[in-house]
Design goal:
Blueprint (H helix, E strand, L loop, with lengths): L1 H14 L3 H11 L9 E6 L7 H8 L11 E6 L4 H10 L5 E4 H9 L4 E8 L3 E5 L15 E4 L5 H14 L9 E3 L2 H10 L3 E7 L2 H6 L5 E5 L1 H7 L3 E6 H6 L1 H20 L1 H12 L3 H10 L9 H10 L16 H5 L2
Helix pairs in contact: 3-11, 11-12, 12-13
């Protein structure tokens, strides 16, 4: 009788139309934290300098020794903040370094996320090869500006400095053209539509070695002052149900930060090899923007985003976050 009942239930699930069947398929592919004896932890490495700590954790295998028994480790390689956010929401990614603006926007839109640590920041610069565009002051609202995505650290760094330069950033709302880093540089150099291009390290190296392309603005001071960087995030459900996996990640991150601090040449070599760039350039950035775990600039950036109407609601202050005590102890 039990056998017949089980078969009937399976058949019922198979013939269920549309959404329920699709949901079942999605759940099978997700990280499974519901089985006490076996879990999978999925971490995303985005391939950027602000996410470089993930590269160290992955390549040096810092996390494996901290994982509980019967836990598999899986890595994904998604660069887009939107795709990372969607991966976290769907359960296909457990831990990812999301830009702080993207995190704040996601929370405002009802996505239950928690910050667990700082991911990092990165040099951001704007380039042009067009006549008459030699500085930020030369960029006009009618110009098309290529960047990898809206709500990203590149986008927000531009808005902050546009506010300083022109008294407002609203006039640039329709100026941005979203495309991958390499395509943005190609659009700048091969056509007339894109008149400026914003990118981050290490893609900045490619821009600076491209004939005719020049730096017209460096956002480094703004990045440091406003905390324009990325934070490691998880869903609240994951944070509450898997504290041991979160702890394992934070221990691994602590090891990665220590390793980078004590072995800067080896760290630079690893990153340079991965990104196929000059080691000396990586080492220079490691010195100017070292890895860290403590969250930087949260309130400063959150306040700017609210005042500039990037966020519609006043976000929680850093000391109001549910896990502030843990974050403050990093």
């Amino acid at each position: 009788m039990k056998k017949h009942t089980i078969i009937a239930l399976i058949l019922a699930l198979i013939v269920t139309v549309g959404g329920a069947t699709a949901f079942a398929i999605v759940k099978i592919s997700n990280s499974d934290h519901s089985t006490p004896n076996h879990r999978t932890l999925t971490i995303n490495y985005a391939g950027s300098y602000s996410n470089a700590m993930m590269l160290l954790i992955k390549e040096k295998k810092f996390i494996e020794k901290y994982l509980p028994k019967n836990t598999d480790l899986k890595w994904t390689n998604i660069a887009s903040s939107t795709e990372m956010r969607d991966g976290i929401v769907s359960g296909n990614i457990d831990i990812a370094g999301l830009s702080l603006p993207s995190y704040l926007s996601a929370v405002e839109n009802g996505i239950p996320m928690d910050i667990i640590s700082y991911a990092g920041n990165t040099p951001i610069k704007m380039y042009s090869n067009k006549d008459g565009v030699n500085s930020f002051a030369d960029v006009k609202p009618s110009d098309k500006i290529a960047l990898v995505g809206l709500n990203t650290i590149l986008h927000v760094a531009f808005l902050i400095d546009a506010d300083k330069q022109f008294g407002s950033s609203d006039q640039f709302n329709s100026s941005f053209v979203v495309m991958p880093h390499a395509d943005g540089l190609a659009a700048l150099t091969t056509g007339d539509e894109v008149r400026a291009y914003i990118t981050t390290f290490p893609t900045t190296i490619k821009a600076e070695t491209t004939t005719g392309v020049r730096t017209i603005h460096d956002f480094t001071d703004t990045v440091n002052k406003y905390g324009v960087g990325s934070v490691n995030v998880v869903l609240k459900k994951f944070y509450k149900e898997n504290p041991d996996l979160t702890e394992a990640f934070l221990k691994a991150q602590k090891d990665a930060v220590k390793y980078a601090d004590e072995n800067i040449d080896e760290t630079a070599e690893l990153m340079a090899t991965s990104w196929k760039i000059d080691r000396a350039k990586v080492k220079s950035v490691l010195k100017s923007m070292p890895m860290a775990m403590d969250v930087k600039g949260y309130d400063t950036l959150a306040n700017f985003l609210y005042k500039s109407k990037f966020l519609k609601k006043q976000p929680l202050k850093f000391n109001q976050l549910e896990n502030y005590k843990e974050l403050n102890a990093l």
